[in-house]
Structure formats: structure tokens, C-alpha cells
Amino acid sequence: MSKTRTDPDTLEQIWSEYCRTRSPQLRDRLIENYLYLVRYVAGKMAMSVPPSVEIDDLVSAGVVGLIDAIGKYDPGRDTKFETYAVSRIRGAIVDDLRSLDWVPRSVRRKARMIEDAYGQLETELGRAATDEEISHRLNMSVDEFRATVEEIVSAGLLSLDDFVGNPDGERTTRIIDLVCSKDTDSPSTPIEQEEMRQILAEAIMNLPEKERTVVALYYYEDMTLKEIGRTLGVSESRVSQVHTKAMLRLRGRLRAVRDALLSAINEPAGSSLETPASVSDDSITRELVTAH
After folding, report:
1. What does the alpha-carbon distance between residue 92 and residue 61 come to, in Å, rounded to a whole number?
2. Sequence-distant (≥ 6) Cβ neighbours of residue 231 within 8 angstroms
3. How far apart are CA 31 and CA 3, in angstroms?
């Protein structure tokens, strides 16, 4: 696990020979060289799984994805193996977690309830809401609220096969069906993406200091759960709780912004909010979890 990675020239030769012979010995050398990718992805995804899931389980599932990536990778294409492999490794881990049925519907309902509370209350207050204020809005004690946040830690991952709904509660569209091909982007896409980034950046800047620090270290400094804990002098579980609260707060704020915009656009015409609400909600989610 601690071996030095193969130098680029030798690695290129190994890839060339492996693609020609499909030698199991060469495949094993490639697996050893790229195991660091599995540890990296597993460490990042550990932020979003319940305490009952061991990181070794994530690593084991990730190795399956790495082996699959090595077997299917074509060095002749203009794609770095690391980029290709990370996607395969993450997919293998998510598939393994989904097979465990590890996030009950009730947990996702609680997450949505807290997101809505953050969005509504912080719009009214014009500042970040405290735990006490959110607890009061939800008619629960502070301890109950914090216990709920701990429970919601497990709801941080999404599957592209999951369905999104409209305001009437119908769930008829998969997330993957809302992801546009790069070849079909409309001219307005770059403008919309830039506007979303600006709104998200402003929302992040308005987070409480501790939550803003965790978001910055996790997404911008690319630090793992353990590294953030060591830096801040707190436990991994505490970092996970702070991260979850930040995500709930951001999703709530962005949903409130979305609803206000849609209301302004649609009220004069009296048209339905179904389609834009569904797509916009997915856009918010994908923007927040891009680094996962």
C-alpha cells in the first residue's frame, strides 16, 4: 500500500504491453500503482456515509471499480486514466452502498424538511440561522435537531438513477435524464452556470465560520475527512456533522432563491412550475455535489 508509484515512462510501457497481452501480472502492477486513487475516493466519500459503513468496505468496493477501469481503459483516447478511473471507482462504491439500502426514505424526508427550514428562515432573517432558531422552527429540541443532522449524514450521496419530483409530488424523471450532453448545450448554458456559481459563492460566504471553513478545506483544498479533523482539532464525526449542516443550509438557501425566481417568472402568466422546478432542483443538487 505504501509503495512508490511507477515512474511515467515505465508506466507507459506497462500500459502498452498490458493492452497487447492482457497479462494478469501487468494488470496487478497497474492495480498496485493506482491503489492511491481508491484510497483517495474512499476517503472523500467517507464524509457522506453512516458510521456503520467502514472505510475498508468503501476501499474494497473501489478496488472492484479500479479493476474494471483498467480492463476497459483505452490509452489511445484523449482521456487521462486517473480521470476515467475515479469515475469508475466512485460508481462502484455507490453501487455497493445502494445494494445495502442504507438511506431510508424517512431520512431523505428529514433532510428536505431541514433544507426548507434553513431556506425559509434565513430568507426571513437575512443571516445564518442558529441551531436554536432552526430547532424552534421545526418544533424540536436542539438535541433532537442535532441528532437528526447526525442521521442525515448518510443521505449525502445521490445516484443518477434516482428520480426527481415536481411540486405535486410526482417522481417521473431520473437525474441522469436531466444531464445534458456537452454536444447539446444551449448558448445560454455558460451564462446560467456562471450565475449559479455566483449565487453559490455568495451562499458559501454567508455560512457560519466553522461551516465555511469545512467547505473550503473539503472542496477547495481537496482535504479528506481525517485531514480536516486534524487541522481543526476535532473528530471526524464532528467534521461530518458540520459538513452536513453546511450542505443542508446551502441547499435550503438555493432552493429559496430558485422558488423566488420561478414565482416571479411564472406568476404573471399563471403557468405551472412543474418542469422548471424539477430541473432547477437537480441543477442545485449537482452543483453542490460536483466535488463528490
Report:
1. 6
2. 217, 223
3. 12
Which cell numbers hold the place of 195? 450565475
Q: What is the spatial distance between Cα 39 and Cα 48, in angstroms, rounded to a whole number? A: 15
Q: What's the pLDDT at 140?
A: 92
Cell 480521470 found at: 83
pLDDT attached to residue 43? 86
Q: Which CATH architecture has domain 8-99?
A: Orthogonal Bundle (1.10)
Residue 63 neighbours by CB under 8 Å, 6+ apart: 31, 35, 38
Least confident of 55-64, 110-119, 195-204, 207-216: 195-204
* Positive/negative CA dihedral, 221, 227, 229, 231: negative
Length of the chain: 292
Domain boundaries, the chain: 8-99, 105-288
Higher pLDDT, 23 or 179: 23
CA angle 42, 104, 214 (to 5 degrees): 45
Full-model pTM: 0.51
User: Distance (Å, rounded) from C-alpha 34 to C-alpha 40?
Assistant: 10
* CA-only gyration radius of the chain, Å: 21
What is residue 216's DSSP assignment? I
Distance, CA of 35 to CA of 192 (rounded, Å):
37
Short-list 285, 289, 280, CA closest to 192: 280
Check residue 101 and give left, alpha or beta (phi > 0: left; psi -120 to 50: alpha): left
Check if the beta carbon of residue 266 is closer than 8 Å to that of residue 167.
no
